[in-house]
Amino acid sequence: MxxxxxxxxxxxxxxxxLGSALLVHxxxxxxxxxxGKAAATADPIIAVNVGDxxxxxxxxxxxxxxxxxxxxxxxxxxxTAGSIDIGDGAGTEMAFTAKGVPMLAVCENxxxxxxxxxxxxxxxxxxxxxxxxxxxxxxxTAGSLTDWxxxxxxxxxxxxxDAITRVTIGNxxxxxxxxxxxxxxxxxxxxxxxxxxxxxxQIGRVxxxxxxxxxxxxxxxxxxxxxxxxxNPGALRAFLAGWLETTAFIRTHKAETVKIESxxxxxxxxxxxxxxxxxxxxxxxxCKFDAESLATLRRxxxxxxxxxxxxxxxxxxxxxxxxxxxxxxxxx
Length: 332
Fold this sequence. Notes:
Helix content is 37%, strand content 17%. By secondary structure, the protein is an alpha/beta fold.
């Protein structure tokens, strides 16, 4: 999994016993909703595949058509063209709403970034992120999410901006594998599952998940098209109820989830099982937007050069379509 897909392209849950509290009245007849994924295999995003296979949307009268894109930019282009109803992506895509894309964020699905990690070559002597000072760190492209996360590491550690050297190596497993083998970089920021898969071949390994130093930032977000909001709000509510049931299932059914996700990602179940343990705590419990996440995103939009000025975040999202969840415990 390459999570620069979440920028370049790049952030819910109730016990099953409370499932009845999540139910909304099914739409009167099956309604087709087209869901565009900003990345094919990123952990916050593939929950839609899990819920689809388990029938959590179907039982609410929603037929899903799922389309994979190669980035948040491609997903938002499809939203602009009216080709999709729901965008399944990252909080960084909220910047496109500020730019006029006809969509609104309707669910903060995941709040942290453990599905991205700093990886190092298998034989690296590095044991902690503090040892990265003065090192070369691979990023996909200049101005990308991984580039920003490398800069965030230096900022959070209190280092000067030039304390690390950011090296552009492109996206994908082959790029980081070659850079590791040729010792072009000391570390790389990429998908946790990618480094876990590398470990099985003794090519690379996870040093630390990005969530070890980067706080809440709405890493997984769902967007609804303005058209869906205006013409079929009931279908949107049913979809979000299905999503919450899906993530409740994911949090409580590891074996079943790992099996489905392995089929989606192509990684073996051994890799997905290890990643499950790393990422499972990232899911929010009720899809509501966290103040820290919004503040981090607001700052990142300018630092990533997505926007020239920080926007009014209140205009970029709504919680109006979330199912009521009486008695649910606090989100985080």
